[in-house]
Amino acid sequence: MDDYEQQEEVASWHGISKLNPIKICEWDTTSIPQVGEPLDETNWIVWHEHTRRMLRMCRVLKYVDGLIPRPDDPDEAENWEDNDNYMQVIIVTNILTTEMIHVSQCDTAHAMWISLEAVHEAKGLETAIAIGQNLFHVIANDSTNIVEHLNTLKTYWEWMNMAVDKEFRLPDIWFKVFISTSLPLSWDIFTQQYVGGRITKMETDPKRQLSSQQFIGILKEEYFWQQQCASKSDAVNQVVACYALVGALHTTCAKAEYCQVNYDLVG
Predict the structure, then answer these.
(1) How confident is the prediction along the chain (267 residues), in pLDDT tens digits per residue?
(2) Which of 6, 53, 104, 113 has its CA 20 to 30 A from that of 13?
(3) Helix (H, G, I), strand (E, B) or coil at 106
(4) Structural domain boundaries enclosing 194
(5) Which of 61, 95, 122 is the last residue of a domain?
(6) Domain-embedded: residue 181
(7) Domain check: are 152 and 71 in the same one?
(8) Cα–Cα distance measured from residue 50 to residue 125, given in angstroms and rounded to the nearest whole number
């Protein structure tokens, strides 16, 4: 099943009739689907990913990608125009007014999409590079909250892998290695059992076959366990310190009493 066959299957779950230039879909024009944030100058990578997923669910991605040409038959052409116009409305509804300058002269949904890509692709790559730089500078030390550290790494990694150019994406196996190297040296013994081996060799160790997300979950559990142990150790140290203080006070009091007795005898 290809990508567009999946679109048709998913759309059928939502009661959307088959989309083609022959029979127009009974679109609910009073409810235009919207992504979380409209397109602006800074969010192309995230907006691109969210919007394509939304269009795939609505089964109109073929119009955006220019895979449904305008038919020659007048009746089919009219249906095609209605469908394409609906797609155009979805696009303009999900961009800021400042972005309208890039699509106002476009006659089709495909032309609109190509225009937005031409404007934002270069900026998107610059954003991906900046995200990658931030990712590789996130290094933890012994006082770092490891849970927050891992959440930051995961956020940067997900943003980076939304880049349109697949060459900028960081594979899961390399992200897992980077997670390990970003932790303090005190974690090396623990992480070595989950990361390592040779790329040319088929890995059979279940621990090293874990995904980066499973690895993150294990690291969080280990961090919580270490924090609990540290809390118990601090409590024990406080008790020992209290006993030592009490002992010192008793010794001091005994010495003071001894001196007072000797003073009285001399006097």
Answers:
(1) 555 455 455 444 333 444 555 444 555 555 788 888 899 888 888 898 889 988 888 878 888 888 888 888 888 888 888 888 888 999 999 999 999 999 999 999 999 999 998 888 766 667 677 778 888 889 999 999 999 999 999 988 887 777 656 777 788 888 999 999 999 999 999 999 988 655 556 667 888 889 999 999 999 999 999 888 877 765 555 555 555 555 555 555 555 554 554 545 445
(2) 113
(3) coil
(4) 138-267
(5) 122
(6) yes
(7) no
(8) 17
